[in-house]
Write a structure and sequence with these properties.
The chain is mainly α. It has two domains: 103 residues, no CATH class; 179 residues, no CATH class. It contains nine helices and no strands. Helix 7 packs across helix 8 and helix 8 packs across helix 9. The longest helix is centred in the last third of the chain and has 43 residues. It is globular and about 65 Å long. The structure holds zinc ion. The site of zinc ion has 7 residues, from loops.
């Protein structure tokens, strides 16, 4: 099965890339349902998709990206606005799938098709409702540990003579990643809360960083926190500057979960290259 797939992929790289993108768009469509319903504690399976006015949505309006474009962002039944979040999440997931296939070896690319959608889901829930549900967050941690055991390539553990040793080492790397991710965010949160005098970061941030550690190992967990902080500061900067210009206090919050998700995805796709580029840049 895998040999046949590899032969097909070698013959038709473009077709496989398009397939990954299309599957990604459909997964993105499902993520939209999850982002809308999970923080409210609703089932993601039933009822079928409905407009805010209660009308069932015909299948063609649900086509990823296309449906939104055909409707020009307005519901067919009642003319209500459909959030741009829908096509954005679908397009982003499509790009994540196609990009994984483009950038990563096949086994890691398939793993990315579970890791990246979970990150998009968690980031989407945080941006939409400022509420990160525990279930997908803990799923990220557990799935990372399982995936590391099944695919030792994820943690770069392929050099042992006995195949079982690769799996054991890989699971160990994953557990260590979880420990480091949990510990660093806990410390930053504790010190930050004392310094700022109010809650700095939340439990969701701890679980997310542990999850990235489970998939990427301890270096990935550190990059998730520190790279994520840089992403967070960059995205908050326009708001901070415009508040200063108006002479007001900045009242927004740094969206930590989405920023850390971006950093985690970057590390999974291009981690070692990022570190090499950094060393190169620092050492001139
Ligand atoms: Zn409607």
């Amino acid at each position: 099965m895998t040999a046949a797939f590899e032969r097909f992929a070698a013959l038709h790289p473009g077709a496989v890339l398009v397939c990954f993108g299309l599957v990604g768009a459909c997964v993105g469509s499902f993520l939209n349902v999850c982002i809308h319903r999970l923080p409210k504690g609703e089932s993601v399976v039933t009822p079928g998709s409905r407009c805010a006015c209660g009308e069932p949505i015909p299948w063609w309006c649900n086509l990823p990206v296309l449906g939104w474009l055909l409707l020009r962002g307005r519901a067919r039944c009642c003319g209500g606005r459909i959030s741009a979040r829908y096509p954005v999440v679908e397009l982003l997931t499509a790009l994540a799938f196609a990009g994984s296939w483009w950038l990563l070896p096949p086994a890691k690319a398939f793993a990315a098709c579970l890791f990246l959608p979970l990150l998009i889901l968690l980031a989407g829930c945080d941006l939409e409702d400022m509420l990160v549900p525990d279930a997908p967050n803990f799923t990220l941690v557990g799935a990372g540990l399982m995936a590391s055991m099944l695919l030792p390539e994820l943690q770069g553990e392929t050099g042992h003579a006995v195949a079982a040793m690769n799996r054991i080492h890989s699971a160990g790397d994953s557990l260590f990643g979880i420990a480091v991710g949990t510990a660093v965010v806990w410390w930053v949160r504790t010190v930050g809360t004392v310094l700022a005098g109010r809650e700095a970061m939340g439990e969701a941030d701890i679980i997310l960083c542990a999850g990235v550690g489970a998939w990427c190992g301890w270096e990935g967990a550190l990059f998730c926190l520190f790279g994520g902080s840089i992403v967070g500061v960059i995205t908050a900067l326009p708001g901070v500057i415009s508040a200063r210009v108006r002479g007001a206090e900045y009242e927004g919050v740094v969206p930590f979960v989405p920023s850390m998700a971006v950093a985690g995805a970057l590390w999974f796709l291009r981690g070692p290259e990022l570190v090499r580029a950094w060393h190169h840049w620092v050492s001139g």
